[in-house]
Amino acid sequence: MDFNAHAREQLDALKEEGNYRIFAELERKCGRFPRAKNHGPVGAREVTVWCSNDYLGMGQHPKVMQAMKDAIDACGTGAGGTRNISGTNHYHRLLEDELADLHGKEGALLFTSGYVSNWAALSTLGSRFKNAVILSDALNHASMIEGIRHSRADKVIWKHNDVEDLDRKLAAVGPDRPKIVAFESVYSMDGDIAPIAEIAAVCKKHGALSYLDEVHAVGLYGPRGGGVSERDGVADQIDIIEGTLGKAYGCMGGYITGSKVLCDFVRSFSSGFIFTTALPPAVAAAARASIRHLKESDVERQQQRRQVARLRARLDEHGIPHLPNPSHIIPVMIKDPVKCRQISDILMADHGVYVQPINYPTVPKGTERLRITPSPLHTDADIDHLVTALNALWQHCALAHNHAAA
Fold first, then answer.
1. Quick check: 191 and 331 in contact, CB under 8 A?
2. Which residues carry out catalysis?
3. Which helix (H) or strand (E) holds 336?
4. What is the pTM for the complete model shown?
5. I need a surface site. Which of 35, 120, 128, 326 has the fewest CB within 10 A?
6. Stretch 354-373: mean pLDDT, rounded?
7. DSSP bridge pairs for 186
8. What does the pLDDT look like over 6-51, one tens digit per residue?
9. Does residue 302 have a pLDDT over 90?
10. 119: which strand partners?
11. CA-to-CA distance for 27 and 35, rounded, in angstroms?
12. β pairing state of 26-28 and 330-333
């Protein structure tokens, strides 16, 4: 078999569909977020990044950078291997204590990414509780889907954010079977938010374990950045809260929080934890500094909300369609993979604006979009420049305006 030929054939088909992904080669500029240097085909030039998941610019916050530098000076770079072999570094323990406190839980467990934490935790819970059923929201992230699949537990999909459908499907599961309900708070593509209190109540009604992914909410919502569950005052009603250190906290890593027993259970049985090299101590130190800062400071969150509202208003002024939602994510709808890629390319080449096109399989075909994430460090002038560029491209690419706009 000619493996290269078969691979090339499938890549060519992906390109014809408009779903082939091209990664921009960016060099983030320290102290100048959201500016970055784009190393493109015609040389390097500065661009403004509009699609970063470093939602608050904490990846370049002085406290966070200094904590990482101090930890490197104290104990070097890597962790030395898995925690099973190399032990738990002191910085890991400090960070886990900080995370448990953030969500009001007894314990926490670190992983190398949010993807790994979902995959490892759900696969362990589903496989180790005999005859378990995992009920998964229809729009759950790929990491949750992979974890459920790997667990080999029976899976039931419930309609997205539909509490009544979840209630019916939980009722249909035998009363003696362990039930795990997995869902997210903020869904990152449409930006909608789950009715956490109602879901938690249904879980309690049926004796189900609730598993909440807060990766796109931690740092951003709640008086201390504990996520939507903290904002809504229901974190104590959720059994396991999972999150990431790689988005609003500006670092890297994932985690779960919950009872000491459940965290120890995953630590003891999860291959995704046991056989993975631990986070570098410097990363753990930086993440802890970021969490501690955002527990006390609301300035970044308030300014981000202001810029999100301003951008939405400016898009409305020009009739540029974007999905309404209560979160910080602004999906500007293109609904065509080729035009989505084209607009992204022109924004970068002609306007110095970087926003990655979001195409299938990340979103369903026909819902292609630009996923825009304003930060507190985007200026009003940045917003005006982006909207002016988008408005010109809307006309150039013959895309429909929102006629309801003023």
1. yes
2. 247
3. none
4. 0.95
5. 326
6. 93
7. 193
8. 999 999 999 888 888 889 999 999 999 999 999 988 789 999 999 9
9. yes
10. none
11. 9
12. unpaired
